[in-house]
Each structure stands twice: as structure tokens, then as C-alpha cells.
Amino acid sequence: LTQDGLKKLAADKAVDYVKSGMVLGLGTGSTAAFVVDKIGGLLKSGELKDIIGIPTSKRTEEQARSLGIPLTTLDDHPLLDLAIDGADEVDPGLNLVKGRGGALLREKMVEAASKSFVVVVDESKLVSGLGGSKLAMPVEVVQFCWKYNLVRLQDMFKELGCEAKLRVNADGKPYVTDNFNYIVDLYFETPIKDGLGAGKEIGKLEGVVEHGLFLDMATAVIIAGKTGVEVKSK
Ligand code: DER
């Protein structure tokens, strides 16, 4: 099975948790896109009814709209039944790194407002410690003096061999999130030991809007691997 095949397998399993009448958080990224596709199909076939979705990004909103999934917002539905989304890293305690797709702020707002939050990943996302993939741990920062905050973030984690980079588009211009902010990506040599502490410290920095550590938020993680699909829950 290709990685996409595994993502689709995890996505299909997650949709079993969706019941008619639910208010759903719709995730962002390639795995979440399979979930949104499947929900659209079940609504069309009538197997699912009375679903209303809250998208976690403009691109998920567009995908959901094109599938005819009725949409709402946190303003009108501050409590959701279930959110389903992908992740970039999953540690043994089901803590996550998310945000490489740039949607971390809206994802965290929606997923924190959901009674259940089911994560869908292929086995390549499993890590022993957060930051362990040596890939980006994103932090959303205001555009104003973004460099000042990039330096403060890099210094904060210098013992972990952290390197901070402003996320840019292919044309070299800064990536701008749906919320008109920038993203500073943190790359760690050594994984983060105390995720809770790290999250708290990052959150204290004035001008930092949100970070990609989703700690103690997932209620279940669906992992698709060579040997099949496994569900890990809290
Ligand atoms: O950016 C995000 O948070 C995405 O959900 C990401 O974590 C997973 O994206 P993928 O399913 O395309 O790997």
C-alpha cells in the first residue's frame, strides 16, 4: 500500500465514528481531505444525514462546499461532537505536532471545541518524542517584528539544537496564513522532553499567536500501517 493508500485506510476508519446529526470539525491536509471526501459521499448517498461541518482552513471550506457539505462556524456552534484531522507527528502519549499545512490556529480552535478529536495518520507519523521527526514544528506569529520572535523562539530551545526558519512560498515571499499571520518553523536536533512546558513557554511570547504542539487533545489516533489499521485511544 502506498502512503496515500494508508492515509485513505485511516480516513475510512475514522468516518465510522461519524453519526447522522453531528456537528463535525473538518481537518486540513491530505489525510483529512480523504475524510471530507468520504463524508461528502455518504451525505450524497443518504447514508449520513443532518451533518454540519466547521472547516479548519479556507481550502477545507472550499473542498467541503464543492461536496455540498453544509457548513457553520464556532460562533454559531461553539461545541462540536467530533473533529477529525491529520497530524505531522504522534508521540506515545498521543500528543501531536500539527501545522505543517499552515492551518494550526483554526485546527486547534476547532479541535479544542470538540467533544471528541480523532486523529488519522499513516505509521510514518509516529515518533518517540515531539520534534523527533526533525521536520518543522510550526509556530504562528504576527507579521509585526516576526524576526524578533523567530530569534526568541530559537534561543528558547537552543539546548535542543533548535533552528528557526520563516516559512516562505516557492517565490520566496513569506507564507501568509488564513489569519494573515506568518509561520516560524522550528527544527529540533533533540526531541522536546517536556511538551507541556515548551507549549507554555512559547505561549508566553508576545506576538506569538499559536503553536503546533497539540497536547492532551486527541481522544483517539487511527494509525494505518503495513499490518493494518490500529486505533489507539486515551
Ligand atoms: O497541517 C496540519 O496540521 C495537517 O493536518 C498535517 O498535520 C497532516 O497533513 P497530512 O495528512 O497531509 O500529512
Can you describe what's shown?
- By secondary structure, the protein is α/β, with parallel strands linked by helices.
- The protein has six helices and 13 strands.
- The strands form three sheets. Strands 2-1-3-6-12-13 form a six-stranded mixed beta sheet. The protein has a four-stranded antiparallel beta sheet with strand order 8-9-7-10.
- A hairpin with a 2-residue loop joins strand 12 (220-225) and strand 13.
- The two termini are 28 Å apart.
- Bound molecules: D-4-phosphoerythronic acid.
Structure, briefly:
With 234 residues, the protein is an alpha/beta fold. It contains 6 helices and 13 strands. The protein has a 6-stranded mixed β-sheet with strand order 2-1-3-6-12-13.
List keywords for this structure.
234 residues; alpha/beta; 6-stranded mixed beta sheet; 4-stranded antiparallel beta sheet; 6 helices; 13 strands; binds D-4-phosphoerythronic acid
